[in-house]
Amino acid sequence: MSSQSILEMSERARAVFRLVVENYIDNGAPVGSRTLSRLASLNLSSASIRNVMQDLEEAGLLAAPHVSAGRIPTEIGLRLFVDGMMQVAEPSAEERAEIERRSANAGPIEEAISSVTATLSGLSACAGIVLVPKQEPVLRQLGFVPLSRRQAMAVLVGQDGSVENRVVDLPSGVTPSLLIEIGNYVSERLAGLTLGEAQERMTAEISAGRAAIDRAAGELIARGLAVWSRDGARPVLIVRGQARLLDDDATAHLERVRQLLDELEGKEEIARLLDLARDASATRIFIGSENKLFALSGSSVIAAPYRGGDGRVVGVVGVIGPTRLNYARIVPMVDFTAQTLSRLMA
User: Fold this and answer.
1) I need a surface site. Which of 36, 107, 115, 142 has the fewest CB within 10 A?
2) C-alpha dihedral, 342 to 90 to 242 to 263, nearest 10°
3) Cα separation of 337 and 315, whole Å?
4) By CB neighbour count within 10 A (0-12 exposed, 13-18 middle, 19+ buried), where does 204 fall?
5) Are 124 and 245 in contact (CB under 8 A)?
């Protein structure tokens, strides 16, 4: 069903559907017709409510987890509610103040981002997640250790003292003595540059014929730099507050929570999911099996991009929790957190 289906629903059906969803989000339990009939705002008999709920179930918006139980919204129903019926509430003054306070009191930028994400986790009672832009390493030295005629170990040393190794294929014509010459060239000509800058200079010098080494050596340097340049640009995923997923309601859904915790261990998969929110102009909501990563645990993700000083998106912040999230409260909270991080990065 699309949001247009809301207009096609009768006023009675919309009222019943809204109350079922809101009661389920508040209490986490199936909602019965007797419960709804006690609400003065509805002014319908239990029999009338049962008939409406049956129609909503046949439309795929509600489901009965047990034969004698009440109804709960399906994922399709939750999507319809979120897109077309939900009325969001602004974060409270206390919530805004707490997020801003944690951003102001933290130390380095990475610590501040982690602290703000932990605060979002606490306020939302979900696991907080954030994609942090990784600073591209500054080159101090790039050396090659021959392993065979066709391969060598590339050793990159950063200005911060970090050391990383990769096995690279050797172009034809590269000898052990040339590998030493390459190391000297890098130390003299490329040290102090980021990997991207070193790549650009290497390419420009070879193209202009100014490189003091031959094209095969230049190709090898570019190949080694490219590996770390790609890795260096890859964002880092931080997850905070996994324990908050183990609330009082979790005992009834231990398998779902276990599956969700397993999914949180697969950080690369979640990072790819959050990448989908990078191009969004506003907060994005992924409900349950709409994303195959959470098809088993039935979890929801609310995420929003945040920007750097130049206005470009540099990361994504959000929460992960059960589909029974208070979307109306948490969506604006995630949005405000993204705005806070954007000011922090400016």
Assistant:
1) 107
2) -80
3) 12
4) exposed
5) no
Rounded distance between C-alpha atoms, residue 118 and residue 112, angstroms: 10
Are 16 and 56 in contact by the 8 Å Cβ rule? The answer is yes
Packed helices 327-345 and 93-105: angle between N→C axes, nearest 10 degrees? 30
**Which residue do the tokens 């034969």 mark?**
67
Tokens of 314: 């540099």
* Residue carrying structure tokens 């969001």: 88
Distance CA 47, CA 300 (A): 33
CA dihedral of 82, 87, 93, 94, whole degrees rounded to 10 = -50
pLDDT averaged over every residue in the chain: 82
pTM for the full model?
0.72
Phi, psi (5° rounding) for residue 18? -60, -45
Is 271 within 8 Å of 237 (Cβ atoms)? yes
Cα R_g (the chain), whole angstroms? 27
Q: What tokens appear for 245 in the block?
A: 């997923």
Rounded distance between C-alpha atoms, residue 33 and residue 314, angstroms: 48
**What is the spatial distance between Cα 306 and Cα 317, in angstroms, rounded to a whole number?**
7
249/52 Cα distance (integer angstroms): 28
Contact 233, 314 (CB under 8 A): no
Q: At what angle do helices 215-233 and 195-207 cross, to 10 degrees?
A: 160
Closest CA to 327 of 84, 47, 10: 84
**In the chain, alpha helices (H):** 4-8, 11-27, 33-37, 46-58, 75-84, 93-105, 109-124, 176-189, 195-207, 215-233, 254-265, 267-275, 327-345
% of the chain exceeding 90 in pLDDT: 32
**What separation in angstroms does the CA of 260 have from each of 170, 209, 286, 314?**
43, 55, 14, 26
